[in-house]
Amino acid sequence: MTTTEVDGRKDTIRCQVWDLLDQQGVVAGDGSAHGRIPNFIGADRAADQLAALPAWEDASVIKAVPDKAQLPARARALREGKVVYMAAPKLAPPQPFYLLDPAQLAVPAEDAASSRIAPSVARNVGLDELRPVDLIVCGSVAVNRRGVRLGKGAGYSDIEVALLAQAGLIGPATTIVTTVHPLQVVEYDIPETSHDFSVDVIVTTDEIITCAPPRRPSRLDWDDLSAEQIAAMPVLQSLQNSR
Asked: Which pTM was predicted?
């Protein structure tokens, strides 16, 4: 498949899943699933399932996406004394991660874990300040049982994972999980590219799926990054200048 064909197939899958979630009424609130990581009904139950995994119990440092569907997981991590790193929107600040340290927070975990409140209570940190990450919690629009996932198409999660890998902050022992509604688990192939990462475990409201051996980048692929992406993210500019 050409790059255009791969992108088109990915967009088709996203739209099919977004449509299905809307049709089945499993999106929390009044909004549509379209254009976002779906905030699915039952996200708290999926977080409970996630918290029962040995990889979660053993983790002391977690990197999590800022999406609403993963808010229960972020809040639970903070309540359990785990350090959480959360990416700032679009990785736009020079120090593109929020440090949520439960030992230093003056607000309840549910508030601190909110993408709206975190910027006002958490300190921004760069790659040089991050501790090695034990577990990554990512959001997905769709995922299959091999662990191939689709985000909403902006590519930020792929860049975050590549950044962490290049900095030596994640490795083969780092578990990557996604929490999703059962309807987001598809039974067909999802096309992959060199910069895509797979998940090791899929956690739904009622199932835990262990996936194939991990597939993830070891570093940033500069050929896959556009000039616009680099210009928009100071962390990429800094790394490019140091090459």
From this structure: 0.95
